[in-house]
Design goal:
There is one protein chain. This protein has about 240 residues and is of the alpha/beta class. It has a single domain, classed as Uracil-DNA Glycosylase, subunit E (3-Layer(aba) Sandwich), CATH 3.40.470. The chain has a six-stranded mixed β-sheet with strand order 1-3-2-4-6-5, sandwiched between helices. The longest helix is centred in the last third of the chain and has 18 residues. It binds uracil. Uracil binds next to helix 5.
């Protein structure tokens, strides 16, 4: 079972995400030492030892990279969490990183936040099998701490390749970490939400992470508005 630190840490992360100007935690929204650099390239094929997909097939890519040890999370994880769903989905949902249950089962969003995501998808007539669901990091950070910049840098090429292979109509970034990573920004969710961004020719929308909704019921309405927009524009 997750220890109590996990829930305290999740709560503090959420507060930092919602009120970045007023709140400081190490590794949180205001901690510039952990911020994603604005200038980081989309992906740098020279950055060793990156592995591009050999076959151009998503399932083959999973087999190719599931033993990844490019960063220390490769040693501490239980399971590599590649992502699940339709390999040519119109919608691709990207979270932050696996938590306790995801690490145990090797599947993204299977814990409480994932069950809420399933309900939100059902409300716009979708199942998790009809979309693709993944994360910025493929391995769980210990105690669900924020991903480190170095971990994001090592893992992001995998996400970029996944997006290139799936070729979704739209990417939905769940939360600040996914939004900032894909957009090469270092800003609050408030700034990221409410726009349709251009991610190298693909629409990108940033909305609240379902874990944030579990802690703050007031976020349900704006999230529902985001999902209605997604339904109207892409389904
Ligand atoms: N939170 C995430 O960001 N991803 C998961 O897979 C589970 C919880």
């Amino acid at each position: 079972m997750p220890d109590n630190f996990d829930s305290v840490r999740e709560y503090l992360k959420q507060q930092a995400e919602l009120f970045p100007e007023d709140f400081y935690i190490r590794g949180g929204a205001n901690d510039s030492s952990e911020k994603v650099a604005e200038s980081r390239p989309v992906y740098n094929p020279e950055h060793p030892p990156y592995e591009p997909p050999v076959t151009g097939k998503l399932s083959a890519y999973e087999k190719q990279i599931h033993g990844c040890k490019r960063c220390p999370l490769g040693e501490s994880r239980t399971k590599f969490v590649f992502g699940v769903g339709d390999k040519s989905a119109d919608l691709m949902f990207i979270g932050e990183a696996p938590g306790y249950y995801e690490d145990q089962q090797g599947e993204p969003f299977v814990g409480e936040a994932g069950q809420l995501l399933d309900k939100i998808l059902a409300a716009i007539d979708l199942t998790r099998e009809e979309v693709f669901i993944g994360n910025v990091l493929k391995c769980r950070p210990p105690q669900n701490r924020d991903p480190k910049k170095s971990e994001i840098e090592e893992c992001e090429p995998y996400l970029i390749e996944q997006i290139n292979l799936v070729q979704p109509k739209a990417i939905i970034a769940l939360g600040r970490v996914a939004g900032n990573t894909l957009l090469k920004k270092s800003t609050s969710l408030r700034d990221l939400r409410g726009h349709t961004w251009d991610y190298h020719g693909t629409d990108l929308i940033v909305t609240y992470h379902p874990a944030a909704l579990l802690r703050n019921k007031k976020l349900k309405r704006p999230t529902w508005e985001d999902f209605q927009k997604i339904q109207r524009n892409y389904l």
